[in-house]
Amino acid sequence: MKRIVAVFILLGFFLSVGAQSNLFPSNMKSGNITYSIVPSINQTWGFQILVNQKPVIKQLSIPALQGNQGFKDTIAAGKVARLMIQKIRQGEMPPTVTIPEMKKIKAI
Fold this sequence. Notes:
By secondary structure, the protein is α+β, with helices and mostly antiparallel strands.
């Protein structure tokens, strides 16, 4: 019985991973990847990642931090957007950004 449950759990995991990979365009690495700065709550800033001028990621809060506060200025938001684009071009999708990475580029 435990083996049957384990098989269904693994099957569900692989199906969900396959479904998630379809959420993003297949030409992410080779497409024209840009970003735009967008306003967020409480006079803060976020960004959108666009592939071939179509939004694929909308980040209105600082990634890896609790809450929904955006970046204090457009410069910090742009630094993290460029870091995410770099990760997408390296094949990381969805791109993850850590607090140490954001501190290293002086975004937080």
